[in-house]
Amino acid sequence: MVTAVMPTYARADVAFVRGEGAYIFDANGRRYLDFTSGIAVTALGHGHPRLVEAMTKAIQGVWHTSNLFRIPGQEQLAETLVKNTFADTVFFGNSGAEAVEGGIKLVRKYQYASGHPERFRIITVEGAFHGRTLATLAAGRQEKHLKGFGPIVDGFDQVPFGDMAAMKAAIGPATAGILIEPIQGESGLKIVPTSYLKELRALCDAHGLLLFFDEVQTGMGRTGKLFAHEFTGVTPDVMSIAKGLGGGFPIGAVLATEKAAIGMVAGTHGSTFGGNPLATAAANAVLKEVLAPGFLDHVVAMGEHMRKGLEGIVARHGNKIAEVRGKGLLIGLRCHVDSAKLIDALRANGLLTVAAGDNVIRLLPPLIVGTREVDEGLAIIDRTLESMVS
User: Which domains does the chain carry?
Assistant: First the structure.
């Protein structure tokens, strides 16, 4: 018999009722160290006072008006994002998948408005994950996600990870742009080399294509920069963001240069809920904290501290853990043991982690995590591995 909640998730049998900073408590009062952050969403942790204050004030005002009217909080958020990124303009939606969908439309519309309606195809990279809608599934092209949802939406070509020769060969008369994550999160925290991204930028410029970065998971300070591509010096034309932007409240956005957004005029795209007063109140509060002096330096310091500790764990448990991956507080452990069993064992010992591909577990603590919490998490990992049979 089917459950009232559609069974599309294999949920752990635990329900959380409150949180404080990097900790979250279940219905029985047990405390867990939260190194999932709602899959890189609760950037400021649980119950952050400035976020609570902002949302309390917002709830007492207007909740929703639709985008038929001006939304001051949305305008403020867009201006802050434009000021602190490559972008000239922003469209707001509700999720990462919606942001990627919006970016896909923008890329196609750019080519159409530029006199090239024949250009509609977008090249992606093997191992990508761009969302669960039909178009974003086609962009990611992972069989485990596509199975049963055919036919695959047309308009996407995929090349092997890191294969520049294949990328160049895939560009044709119908190519409109290239979509890539600077760090592939879901497939195991694989960092795209800076040299590769620089070549992509040159290719797009040479062929009149748009370079589209998916920073849904890597953005909002998760890697130690506001966005991961800032480490490379490569600037995209289009970028999708979400997750940490709202600190737990659903919001996503498409960022673009003025040139790239040339075709996005009134009536070309929309969202009933996108960028509403509640969502933008949350995002403005989060962004203010992330952009505050010293915040990103703290992320870098905590990331380095965690990595150093994890490398020590790899040295002690090399038969169970193969390597440390990632950047900042987007960290992965590629395992020799079954990663799913390790995740279950860590949860039983009070540490929440999340799976990724390539037998990797992701460690995604809130960006406000401190040395004490990092050390506690490291101790749980070490103790758990010590008790596991390899």
Answer: 16-34+293-387 (3.90.1150.10), 51-290 (3.40.640.10)
